[in-house]
Amino acid sequence: MSLKYSNKINKIRTIALSLIFAGMIIMYIGLLFKNYEWVMVLFMFLGLIAIALSTVIYFWIGMLSTRAIQVVCPECEKPTKVLGRVDACMHCKQPLTLDRNLEGKEFDEKYNSKKYWKEQEKTND
Ligand SMILES: [Zn+2]
Predict the structure, then answer these.
(1) How confident is the model at residue 124 (pLDDT cuts 50, 70, 90)?
(2) Number of H helices and number of E strands within the chain?
(3) What separation in Å is there between the alpha carbon of 83 and the centre of ligand 1?
(4) For this UniProt entry, which segments traverse the membrane (predicted)?
């Protein structure tokens, strides 16, 4: 069984990085249209938005990182950060949980949703 899941902080970081590249490519395409000034300005503007957005995302990751709990991965013994109730190791993608009740259970992203836990509470009552 292949696990498609990856560490949340790493995932967001990848998005931010690809946005920077996208922004640069968009700006580069704009340069190809330097004979049509408005097209070039439009592309430059879009490129700037993409780069600005990635800066915002990087800032957001910084805030998330401070909230994430640092643990040592039992699988590869490297320090990693867990965000939410379940997350994957940054290095080996080993699923990790902070909830003892979930230990040994099959990894599922639903454990991070508030809705799932509300429904669980209802069935326990
Ligand atoms: Zn690991």
Answers:
(1) confident
(2) 3, 4
(3) 14
(4) 12-33, 39-61
- Ligand 1 centroid distance, CA of 59 (Å): 25
User: Ligand 1: distance of its center to the CA of 11 in Å?
Assistant: 15
Structure tokens at 91: 């290095």
Residue of 24, 29, 49 whose CA lies nearest to 40: 29
- Given a cut of 70, whether residue 1 has pLDDT beyond it is no
Expressed in angstroms and rounded, the spacing between residue 88 Cα and the centre of ligand 1 is 8
Ligand 1 is an ion; residues with CB less than 5 A from it:
73, 75-76, 89, 91-92, 94
Cα 74 to middle of ligand 1, angstroms: 7
Q: What is the pLDDT of residue 4?
A: 65
**Per-residue confidence (pLDDT) for residue 89, from 0 to 100:** 93
Domain spans of the chain, in order of start: 1-67, 69-125
Predicted TM-score of the model (pTM): 0.74
